[in-house]
Amino acid sequence: MVMRYFSFIFLLVGIVCCTATYKAFNANVVSTDNKVIAHRGAWKKNNLPENSIASLRQAIALGCYGSEFDVRMTADDSLIICHDSTLNNLSIENTKYSVLNSFKLSNGEKLPTLREYISAGLKNNTSTMLICEIKPSTISKERSLQITEKVVNQIKKLKSTQQVIYISFSHDILKKVEELQPGAITLYLNGTKSPDQIKDDGIDGLNYHVSVWKKHTDWIKSAKQNNLLLSAWTVNKTDDMDWLIANKFNFITTDEPELLFERIENSPVAKGWELTWNEEFNYTGLPDTSIWNYAVGGNGYGNNELQYYTKDEVGNAVVKDGKLFITALIQTKEKNKYTSARLFTKDKAEFTYGRIEVNAKLPAGRGTWPAIWMLGKNRSEISWPECGEIDIMEHVGFDADSIHGTIHTKAYNHIKGTQKGKAIFIKNPYTEFNTYAIEWTSEKIDFLVNDVVYNHIENEHLTTAEWPFDQPFYLILNLAICGNWGGKKGIDESIFPATMEIDYVRVYH
Q1: N or C: which end of the chain has fewer CB within 10 A?
Q2: The three-state (H, E, C) secondary structure of 433-459, written as one string
Q3: DSSP per-residue string spanning 363-419
Q4: Alpha helices per DSSP H over 226-256
Q5: 3.40.1370.10, 3.40.630.30, 3.60.15.10, 3.20.20.190: CATH of 2-269
Q6: What amino acid positions are annotated as catalytic residues?
């Protein structure tokens, strides 16, 4: 059971009660290790009805931090648990409870009232918060506030105020909760207000769709500075989960709580790494010039490569759909038959030590040579290989499914045949995204694919000829065509256009 993965620490104070901004929350607030909020209960894996007592009990059994549910009010003012505004084509707000209650949930349960749901959530539960979403009325603002008052009064009557967090798309509903239950934890769902506005309103946090957070990444820092709770919904993709975990969100709402527990347990953050720089490509157009420079030209780049690297050509490097696309084309440029792109980070994205990871999908086909690699910042002063090179990922198309991780130094390099490299076989580099990473300290460099270490380089503590890796390095992303290695078995021209897709770059220390 997932419970074994976490040691829960419950406090009867606010998450940061030492700051003036936070109220002294009269609620059980768990340690930040557990971020998991089951969306409408833990229903998906066991095919339970959403918003059912069974899915609530499953969320409690899993040890989720919270279980979210939705409250609506019937025509005769009964508070029921239901997400949609209709049930069996009947408007909930215009139908009496006795009529709605004649319809059973898919597992045979009756439609739960708020009283029944809260009572079930309190039974044998010392760890899971009840995340109460109050749905605004479609009839009037006044009715929304009436619903809010009835919800808060019922929660007070059940003596469950310490177990409940309130969320809503309605700003007015949350303000009413704050009025009726001072000290209640409230999170705004609508995604339209900045952290500064939320702080001024006296609401405790922002619970926005993950797409909103990716569009407004500056709000993450602002929310933390304002001591606001950070939460996201509804997060079912592993890359979104990983991004939110890396950015230390307080809560993540998901239909896949079991998967989220796994991602938390295996995340770099759980292993002591802290995200310090990242590029998520959450924009459209050319790569961000505040981050990326271009190599330009077609001189073979020391390896007799056949491509011409272009600058500001969307056909060769473009950001769209949350990813960077580096594409090689059959396109004559000067004396070169092919064009492609090679990007490298500017000064603000240079690193000494850390975990550097890039999530990518590779091009397939004989003649391609994609690479994710690093060079020492002092290359312009002392040249290669003295500056050092770290190849986080290299792949040559004729050697299908093999990923190479290598270092080159003055003592160890491919010119001498002394480079230190190893390869790993992976099943799906062309059809799925995989995470290519290094973990680099003053003592060693580990090369990883999807968190599996396949090459380990130790610092021998000799000279910089063996270990030039105690200095800043910059990152390079490129797709070469042919060359001394990539072109060993020629080229298949049917593969073009050939594209390497980069989902994200993340650097931890």
Answers
A1: N
A2: CEEEEEEECCCEEEEEECCEEEEEEEC
A3: PPSTTEEEEEEEEETTHHHH-TTTT-EEEEEE--TTSTTEEEEEEE-SSS-TTTT--
A4: 238-246
A5: 3.20.20.190
A6: 389, 394
